[in-house]
Inverse folding.
């Protein structure tokens, strides 16, 4: 009988979104500021938040579409 033991230490690291995704969030925030009633702009901002790990912020933004 062969017993193999693997011992690894994994440390959780916080997700750090790449610079291009951060820029996308900023671009979409400006778009929503310019056109606050644009469903497309609001949706894109919500998705950008989701891509960058800001799930709750994205969900709050997405809820604005459901109310309109």
């Amino acid at each position: 009988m062969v017993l193999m033991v693997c011992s690894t230490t994994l440390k959780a690291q916080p997700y750090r979104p790449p610079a291009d995704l951060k820029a996308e969030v900023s671009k979409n925030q400006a778009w929503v500021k310019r056109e606050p009633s644009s469903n497309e702009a609001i949706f894109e901002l919500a998705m950008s938040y989701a891509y960058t790990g800001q799930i709750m912020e994205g969900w709050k933004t997405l809820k604005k579409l459901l109310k309109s």
Helices lie at 19-34, 39-51, 55-67. The CA atoms of residues 32 and 41 lie 5 Å apart. The chain has a mean pLDDT of 88.
